[in-house]
Amino acid sequence: MGATFDYWKLTKTVLFYALVLVIVVVSVFPFYYAILTSLKSGTDLFRVTYWPTSISFDNFRQVFSQGAFPRNLLNSVFVASVTVILALFLAVTASFALSRVRFRGRGLLLMTILAVSMFPQIAVLAGLFEVIRFLGIYNTPWALIFAYTIFTLPFTVWVLTTFMRDLPVEIEEAAIVDGATPWVIITQVFMPLMWPALVTTGLLAFIAAWNEFLFALTFTVSNETRTVPVAIALLSGGSQYEIPWGIIMAASVVVTVPLVALVLVFQRKIVSGLTAGGVKG
C-alpha cells in the first residue's frame, strides 16, 4: 500500500512539473524566438533554427538609426508614466471615498465604474475621437493620456477600494483624533500601507498604456507623436513587397525587455497586491 502511495505521489509530481514545463515553454518560446530572429541578418532570417548560429546586432542599429523610433520610445515612456501618475492619483482619492465615506448608492457607483471597463475600445472610439478633437489635443501625447486614463481608472479604483476597505478602521480613527485631515490620512497614513496594491495597479496600468495600439493609431498621425506599438506596425522595408522581419523583431525585443524587467523586479508586490482583500481574517 505504501509503495503504491509513493508511486502515485511520484507520478503526480512528475505530471505537475511536466505541466509547468509546458506552460513555461509556451509562454517563453515566442519571446525567445523573437530574440533569436532579431540577432539574424540576411538570408539567415528565413532559416528555421532554434539555437543561435551567428549573432549580428545590425537590426538593433537600424532600429535606432532609421526613422523616429527613439522618439516613439520616449513618447511611450512619457504617455505610460503620466497615465500611471494620473490614474493612481484619481484612483487613490476615489477609493478613499468609496471605502471610507458612507453615502447612498456607493455600491451602485462602484459597480458602474467597473461596468465601464466592459465596453470594448471600438465601441467608444468615435465618441472619444470627437471629445479629443473638441479639447484640441488631437495628434498630441495628451490625447493618448486622456484616453488611457479613462480606461485604466476602473481597474485601479476597484483594486484600491478593495484594499483600502480592509485596512483597520482604528488607524483612521487614531489619525482623526490627532487632528489629521482626509488628505493627510490618505497620503501619510494609508498610502504607506498600500504599496503592494499601488505597485500592482500602477504596473498593470503602465503595461496597458505601453502596449495599446488602437487609440495610438487613431489619435496620432505624425511620426513625432506616435508610440512604439504603432511605430513597429508601420516599419517598412526597402520596397512595398519587403517585410523587415529582423528590424521588427529587434524593435519588439527593445519594447518588451523593460516590461519583463519591471515584472521581475516587482513580482512579489504584484502577487500580494492582486491577492489583497481576497482573504479576510
TrEMBL record:
**Positions of the ABC transmembrane type-1 domain:** 73-266
Question: Family, per the entry?
Answer: Belongs to the binding-protein-dependent transport system permease family.
Any idea where this protein resides?
A: Cell membrane
Give the UniProt entry's GO cellular component terms: plasma membrane
Query: What keyword terms does UniProt attach to this protein?
Result: Cell membrane, Membrane, Transmembrane, Transmembrane helix, Transport
Q: Which GO terms describe its biological process?
A: transmembrane transport
**Keyword Transmembrane tagged:** yes
Q: How does it sit in the membrane?
A: Multi-pass membrane protein
Native organism: Devosia marina
PROSITE patterns, sorted: ABC_TM1 (PS50928)
Cell inner membrane found in the keyword field: no
Under InterPro entries, the record lists: BP-dep_ABC_trans_perm, MetI-like, MetI-like_sf
Looking at the UniProt entry, the stretches that span the membrane are: 14-35, 73-96, 108-129, 141-163, 183-210, 243-266
Q: What is this protein called?
A: ABC transporter permease subunit
